[in-house]
Design brief:
This protein is mainly alpha-helical and 105 residues long. The chain is built from three helices and no strands.
């Protein structure tokens, strides 16, 4: 049970966070199988700490993702406002393409 989670890079990917969560849950299941002992209390304390760190990492990833969505939405808005006719033409073309693909079925 002395398994430690490898330290995450500065920007953990969602896949790394998911892996860390799976390891954490696996360790929790293993400790439940051993019953309540002094050892399991230590294990639960360690798991609680690890879960706190993992939760913090997930919060950071979600916060950064939200910021990126806002920045990209602003860029898209600026591009559409600076080239309105081109944006309408592209959206019309995409709409026609989707319509053709849906009618084929």
């Amino acid at each position: 049970m002395k398994k430690k989670i490898a330290s995450l890079a500065q920007d953990p990917t969602p896949a790394e966070l998911l892996h860390q969560l799976r390891v954490l849950l696996s360790d929790a299941e293993r400790s439940l199988a051993h019953g309540v002992t002094e050892e399991s209390k230590k294990i639960w304390s360690t798991l609680r700490d690890r879960f706190g760190h993992l939760r913090s990492d997930v919060d950071d990833v979600l916060h950064r993702s939200g910021e990126q969505v806002v920045v990209r939405a602003k860029r898209a808005d600026e591009a559409i406002r600076s080239h309105p006719y081109e944006a309408m033409a592209v959206s019309l073309g995409v709409g026609v393409l989707i319509g053709v693909l849906l009618r084929r079925n």
